[in-house]
Amino acid sequence: MKKQLLSTLLLFIVLIGNTWAQTTEEIVAAIEKEGTENSQLEELAYQLMDLNGPRLVGTPEMKSAHDWAVNTYKSWGINAENQQWGTWKGWQRGITHVDMVSPRVASLHATQLAWSPSAGKKGVTAELIILPTITDSLAFAQWLPNIKGKIVMVSMMQPTGRPDDNWEEFATEKSFAKMKEEREAMEKAWRENMEKTGYSSRTINKALEQAGADAIAQSRWFNGFGANKIFSAGTDEIPVVDISLEDYGMLYRMVEHGQKPQIKIMAESKDLGEVPTFNTIATIPGTELPNEYVILSAHFDSWDGATGATDNGTGTITMLEAARILKKVYPNPKRTILIGHWGSEEQGLNGSRAFVEDNPKIVEGLQALFNQDNGTGRVVRISGQGFLHAYDYLGRWLEAVPDAYKNEIETTFPGTPGGGGSDYASFVAAGAPAFSLSSLSWAYWNYTWHTNLDTYDKIVFDDVRNNAILTAILTYMACEDPEKTSREKAVLGINPRTGEQREWPSQRSPNRKGGLD
Ligand SMILES: [Zn+2]
User: Fold this and answer.
1) Which residues form the Peptidase M28 domain (predicted)?
2) Mean pLDDT across the stretch 254-264?
């Protein structure tokens, strides 16, 4: 009798085990099927990048993107809301048009920098001037009155518009080496001269404005055909534009030849005062452990030289799509799934730092966070971020992922805690298990990161599909795990760069009032 009971019990356990295994496999298969056969990524990318446009903090386009995200979640039956965490300088980009008007007429490839003041209704037409070679800051101060009523060119002229890989492919070894040597010498001379002015490339715009310049032109090329970085203006009154390497070089050579070229800048941006700034937070409530959380994380804001497709449109649509898939195939998660679309990552992880500061209970209940923010590529690296037992649980969750979605992933355990770079760091600093799903580059640094070329066409949808499925499976596994994840920190060892003992990064407060003095 006893024996029979025992064997029945054993059979029962085996059955339960099988059911669980089947369920896991079935759900993973359902995630894969939904993510592959009913992918919404192209449509989401179209709506976010093409239709809504860039998402610079403080712009009406940032707000409309937040509203779009909330409505998109609602259309999938997922609750979402915009949570205000601060205010920012309100600004809106307008028409930018820059033309050379003398010695001949040509339309230039140029755009206003973020937060650049307007050029007024009539625009600014003026002669260009380049920075002189000077002996010291006194000499620079003496030269400064020359810029009154002029447009100052503040970037070095590049000796070549061809990226290095293009030289490598076609140049003779000798001429490639010569070009690099000459360019290095130019860059060194430029840096030393800039130092002698008493300013840096960051602070010089303000000094030129105060000295009476009409406008500033820069060209921040980054070793990729046609790719310029488009950051912020750094002035209060005068417009700042970025001009393509090709046009900037032409104008620079004309100035050097004494041709006195003139350009006309039309730049109709609007200053909108102080505006609220948000995170969009979506929630799929947990059924068994509602106070424990698995967070899908991707910053929502972008720079505005293009449409922020790979920084961080791809991370954003990965998390949206993963949430959509999960709601469909796993609508009643054990733990709460929270999707965080952070504002103002680009100015210092501000949205996520604010969330961590404002939601200690959620941070305390964090089972795991998955962040994606370095381009469109397949996930190829995951670090344990210095959590001693990350290997156990991340390893367990990854086991459930079919090979096709993980066979290129290199893991590092326990790894070292990220001190910055993207929003997972805001949570790691608070001691919460947050991880970065790190992507293949696809020439991210040269071509799309903060550039004028970060657009829809650079998205590699098959890779993003891979990542959305991977994220959904990891989220499902983290939700179902019978154990709460350990937060025990590894001994961090010596930093080989500094020779000092590594320390866990400390939690930092966000800037809750940005761009407003
Ligand atoms: Zn980013």
Assistant:
1) 279-468
2) 98
